[in-house]
Specification:
This protein is an all-alpha fold and about 130 residues long. The chain has one domain. Helices cover about 80% and strands about 0% of the residues. It is built from 6 helices and no strands. α2 packs parallel to α5, α3 packs across α6 and α4 packs antiparallel against α5. The longest helix has 28 residues.
């Protein structure tokens, strides 16, 4: 655990918020509470993994190997994180619109947060490599 990044603190803050919501509502369904705690647990794991340099090094190695691949694969890998972010956001918005302000819909939307944060971090690291 050598370094803390902005994403480490983002994962921790979001995980703490989701845990507080899950434990703060006594009349929440067990399914929603499980989804919130699962999402918070994934965010805590992401926070721990981002402190190790192997995550950034693996992105750097994959970026170097990608230069030898065909152009269509390079473009797909560049678009992949954006596509994951868009799909997670659309899914979350549809869940919230289907059941406005229901805690169950917010719990379902929270499952997309680790995907969004990991994709944004991947884009950030790739941007640092390209500069």
């Amino acid at each position: 655990m050598k370094r803390f990044t902005l994403f480490t603190f983002l994962y921790l803050a979001t995980g703490i918020c989701l845990t507080a919501i899950a434990l703060g509502y006594p009349n929440m369904t067990p399914n929603a509470k499980t989804r919130l705690l699962l999402s918070a647990g994934l965010l805590y794991l992401c926070a721990v993994f981002t402190t190790f340099p192997f995550l950034h090094e693996s992105v750097r190695r994959s970026q170097a190997r990608l230069r030898d691949k065909p152009a269509w694969l390079q473009k797909f890998v560049a678009i992949g994180p954006w596509l994951a972010i868009a799909l997670a956001l659309v899914s979350a918005i549809l869940n919230v619109l289907r059941h406005p302000w229901a805690i169950e819909s917010l719990a379902s939307a929270a499952l997309g947060l680790p995907i969004i944060f990991l994709s944004v971090e991947n884009l950030f690291v790739r941007n640092q490599i390209s500069q």
